[in-house]
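Recall the central idea of this unit: under ordinary conditions, the amino acid sequence of a chain determines the structure it adopts. In this exercise we apply that idea directly, starting from the sequence alone.
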Amino acid sequence: MGCDTFFPDVNGAARFSERLAAGLVQRGHDVHVVAPNQAYRRKAPGIEIIEGEPMTVHRLPSVRWPPHDWLRFVWPWRTKHYARQVLDAVKPDVVHIQSHIVIGRGLTREAVKRGIPVVATNHVMPENILDHTTLPAWMDALLVKWAWADANRTFQMTSAVTTPTRNAANFLEAAIDITGVVPISCGIAASNYRPDLTPRDRNRVLFVGRLTREKQIDLLLEAIVTLDPTLDVQVDIVGGGDQRKHLEQLAERLGLAERVTFHGRVEEEDLRTLYSRASVFAMPSVAELQSIATMEAMASGLPVVAADAMALPHLVHDGENGYLFDPTSSADLAAKLTTVLTAAPEERRRMQEASLEGVRIHDIDRTLRTFEALYRGQPVED
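Accordingly, the structure predicted from this sequence is:
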């Protein structure tokens, strides 16, 4: 499994890769992960415990991308060299790349030379990249065009291309010259979460995710400040990212400093507690190919207010398990939050139960079975 981002990174692609790798180990497979080291030195392949499961991780020398607070990358011109070494040593039955950008690019080209089938999963949208290029705005379009052309060259070499939702598959097929992209949910183990369907004694809005521009957390804070003061809303923001200082300053300017808690990165047990005590989950992002955090919120029995953008409508059905809002309007976000926070107990419980029902189809075992079929070259259902 080739990953440009993996533990200890905290983001959707890394978490999916970790859960997929651990699930495959549980099902009896010998899993090797190729990922960046946290320093510019090669680390001998060794056993790491990921999501409670032992697997072999090959850590490659990497450098930090200066505009980003944690992102590390392997020098692109070295990836094929490293890929040859790993493939010669492991002799895998299949390669699954989680990114076409660096490590996955090198692994794909070397695996194809050896006749090893490659499955690719796309987790990337242009918005995820442009915030961290430091390029002038007029060059962004050129960068996106080049990046998709390079992605197309890699994906054309694979036996299957997947992405988390049908909306994301449609997006990818429209972006590059490719057809037959298979939507496979990232999947979660819903039983790990603790839904609390009882009424809340305090209104708490929760956001979980990277603190980056495309997540639009500033829009959430601007909506919160306009809510009826009698609701006495508290906000919990979980995650790290380059926008944290800006968001803390914004909360201060809006007079929300006492009502907004920036938790940073938290342990899984603490995260589950935050999900369980929240009143509503807010996801204002415009660049979600699925949103694992939203699925975790649903598995915790939370109503969700999400941006009507990209793949979020695939999870949040307006008026059923929450509401969709216009991602350009803080007023619409505030209105939808108010609707949830002032809902009668029976209406709130109906939304909670709809979230629990809606997340069932995203069970991680179904995801694992589907990928196993792809690895074996078998057809899978859309």
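The first helix runs from residue 12 to 26.
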